[in-house]
Specification:
The chain is an alpha+beta fold. 53% of the residues lie in helices and 13% in strands. A five-stranded antiparallel beta sheet has the order 2-1-5-4-3, with helices on both faces.
Length: 237
């Protein structure tokens, strides 16, 4: 770990406020030559409408235009980040499917950017974006700064998700016992409580007891919902 990485680690690890963590990440991004820094956190639940929280220092008029135009749903960098942890540059090719978004961003001075996604075992995803109004991001600069940008994206995700994820979805901190996981796996496979009891060699009452514990821990009303949520959170892997 070089001095920059050590300073980054120490600046983030002890912070307990997501806004302070973002401010520190912004400062580090600016030290790498970028005016703007954005970080978005996407929870794996609820599945149909995942909770998303965003931090950035973009101009207020751009933030308003972005949200009013529904660009969040079509932003190619976000779509890329949900599928890949490889970094992506802002280019004409990147925004080929969202040319109006790209033109609007450039009109407001947001011309040069780089983004990288991160995700963890419970399915929480993050996207760090750094940007500036002047000076293209050259191959030489990327070669020089890529390792630090990658490190920054990972550190930002670990720090912000550590603080924010339990607030947005308390279930991410739930801990299922080995037996609860075993019972839930069979439930996910479509087995009834009676069938599960025969498979595991325990009473049906015990199976129901474990299922009820899981429902309480995951804040679900039935075992199907609990199984879906557990899978989404990586608990049944």
């Amino acid at each position: 770990m070089d001095h920059w990485q050590e300073d980054l680690f120490n600046s983030l690890i002890y912070l307990e406020c997501e806004q302070k963590i973002y401010t520190s990440v912004l400062s580090l991004a600016q030290s790498l030559g970028f005016e703007y820094c954005a970080y978005g956190l996407r929870m794996p639940i609820p599945i149909t409408q995942p909770k998303i929280t965003m931090f950035n220092n973009y101009p207020a008029n751009w933030n308003s235009h972005y949200h009013e135009s529904g660009y969040l749903e079509i932003d190619p960098t976000i779509k890329h980040g949900l599928l890949s942890s490889l970094p992506i540059l802002w280019t004409d090719a990147t925004f080929a499917s969202a040319q109006q978004l790209w033109q609007s961003a450039r009109d407001m001075g947001l011309k040069f950017g780089w983004a990288q996604a991160s995700r963890d075992a419970n399915g929480t995803a993050g996207l760090l974006t750094v940007a500036r109004t002047h000076e293209d991001i050259t191959a030489v600069e990327l070669n020089e700064k890529q390792a630090r940008l990658h490190w920054l994206s990972q550190a930002a995700h670990v720090a912000i998700s550590r603080v924010l994820a339990p607030k947005l979805s308390p279930e991410v901190d739930a801990v299922l016992s080995p037996r609860e996981i075993e019972v839930l796996r069979w439930a996910a496979a479509g087995k009834t409580s009676g069938e599960t009891s025969e498979i595991l060699g325990i009473s049906e009452r015990t199976v129901v007891f474990h299922i009820n514990n899981v429902l309480a821990k995951l804040n679900c009303t039935n075992k199907t919902a609990a199984a879906v949520k557990a899978v989404s959170l990586g608990m049944l892997n």
